[in-house]
Amino acid sequence: MSALSIRLNDDEKKIINAYAKFYNKTITQVVKEAILEKIENEFDLNELNKAIEEYEKNPVSYSSDEVWKMLGI
């Protein structure tokens, strides 16, 4: 396992400490969860934008019933 060092001003440290204490988490847990959540959100947004772009090129959609019928289910 590796370590990561970040610099925080006093206000940022107070906010993170208060949040961690309120949710009974360590500062490490709070920071790690926040970073990974940010990455996941950006990935999801990128995938959404790709799906919208694809739909705009070919605006065809199917209901769930139509999909089941197409699959013979």
Automatic annotation (TrEMBL):
Q: Which GO terms describe its biological process?
A: regulation of DNA-templated transcription
Q: Where is the signal peptide?
A: none
Q: In which domain of life is the source organism classified?
A: Bacteria
Coiled-coil region list: none
What name does UniProt use for this protein?
CopG family transcriptional regulator
